[in-house]
């Protein structure tokens, strides 16, 4: 195998303590990068570093950083550059998932603000603080921003997520256009459903049990969702090759193309889907968010077993990718 162009470069992954971020750090480490992972939770970071070293033989450094705080991101880049002699590769991956219907007190302004602060402004802070270092990189800096198929087309009951990811997509495209002549490549990454175990960390509102049931089931189905390890390898490969855009999973590519060709038709189809999703009927606790790992499944034992069967692969991924809450 030829040596990776990333060999010996200094890399930073935000949201690197679990799920996709953890796997991106693993792939960068395997490519020979000096990797720093950042996240809000110091205990999660320590667990992630231990998992990467024990299971994959990848050594990473960790720094606690809340990407919503630009000063904290400034320190992340400055400390990494001081230790590693620069910053060459940055993957802005920090994110949150909120699942529930808009209105009736289920999903409100707070959820939209949290999504924008964490994902869009987190990506913006990371980009702005990284760019001075990336422009000075002898190898030519590489920046990747994690969007989503949910940012290319709105997804019912995931509107805060879709809005933030849509803004990230625009940011990535605009930065690529403006940074091309400065020697910095920017890759917009738009994954579809991936089996990362994120259903346990997502926040559910409205009829939390039924919201969890559909989300966990779809996120774990092999036909609709993608193996997260394969996804991470493809993302790092795209960053290495300086691709402008990567849309992952056949279903996501098909959806993105359909929306581009016939947006009205796709929007009408999603309206039908929205009517099939759980509604707030006054018996659910409205706007009280519940983490997926803490959701109580309603209904029959057979229904619970069905959800468990559909999400089995995702449950396994949660154990492997540091998603299981302590």
TrEMBL record:
Q: Which UniProt keywords apply?
A: Oxidoreductase
Q: Organism's domain of life?
A: Bacteria
> Would the keyword Lipoprotein be found if you checked this record's keyword annotation?
no
One matching Pfam family is adh_short
Q: Which SUPFAM superfamilies match?
A: NAD(P)-binding Rossmann-fold domains
**Ranges for domain Ketoreductase:** 9-192
PROSITE patterns named among the record's database cross-references: ADH_SHORT
Q: Which InterPro entries match?
A: KR_dom, NAD(P)-bd_dom_sf, Sc_DH/Rdtase_CS, SDR_fam
Q: Which family does it belong to?
A: Belongs to the short-chain dehydrogenases/reductases (SDR) family.
Q: What is this protein called?
A: SDR family NAD(P)-dependent oxidoreductase
Task: State the organism named in the record.
Answer: Streptomyces meridianus
């Amino acid at each position: 195998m030829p040596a990776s162009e990333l060999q010996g470069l200094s890399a930073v992954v935000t949201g690197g303590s679990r799920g996709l971020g953890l796997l991106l750090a693993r792939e960068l480490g395997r490519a020979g990068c000096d990797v720093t992972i950042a996240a809000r939770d110091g205990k999660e970071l320590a667990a992630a570093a231990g998992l990467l070293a024990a299971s994959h033989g990848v050594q990473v450094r960790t720094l606690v950083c809340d990407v919503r705080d630009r000063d904290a991101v400034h320190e992340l880049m400055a400390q990494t550059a001081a230790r590693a002699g620069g910053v060459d590769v940055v993957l802005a991956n920090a994110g949150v998932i909120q699942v529930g219907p808009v209105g009736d007190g289920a999903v409100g302004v707070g959820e939209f603000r949290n999504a924008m602060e964490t994902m869009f402004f987190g990506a913006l802070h990371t980009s702005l603080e990284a760019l001075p270092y990336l422009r000075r990189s002898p190898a030519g800096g590489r920046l990747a921003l994690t969007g989503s198929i949910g940012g290319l087309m709105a997804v019912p009951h995931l509107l805060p997520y879709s809005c933030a990811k849509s803004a990230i997509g625009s940011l990535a495209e605009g930065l690529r256009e403006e940074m091309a002549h400065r020697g910095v490549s920017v890759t917009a990454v738009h994954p579809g459903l991936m089996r990362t175990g994120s259903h346990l960390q997502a926040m559910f509102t409205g009829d939390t049990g039924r919201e969890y049931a559909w989300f966990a089931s779809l996120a774990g189905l092999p036909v609709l969702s993608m193996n997260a390890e394969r996804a991470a390898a493809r993302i790092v490969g795209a960053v290495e090759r300086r691709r402008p855009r990567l849309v992952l999973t056949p279903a996501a590519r098909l959806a993105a193309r359909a929306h581009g060709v016939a947006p009205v038709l796709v929007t009408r189809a999603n309206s039908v889907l929205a009517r099939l999703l759980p509604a707030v009927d006054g018996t659910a606790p409205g706007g009280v968010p519940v983490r997926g790992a803490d959701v109580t499944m309603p209904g029959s034992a057979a229904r619970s077993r069905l959800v468990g069967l559909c999400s089995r692969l995702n449950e396994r991924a949660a154990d492997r990718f540091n998603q299981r809450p302590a």
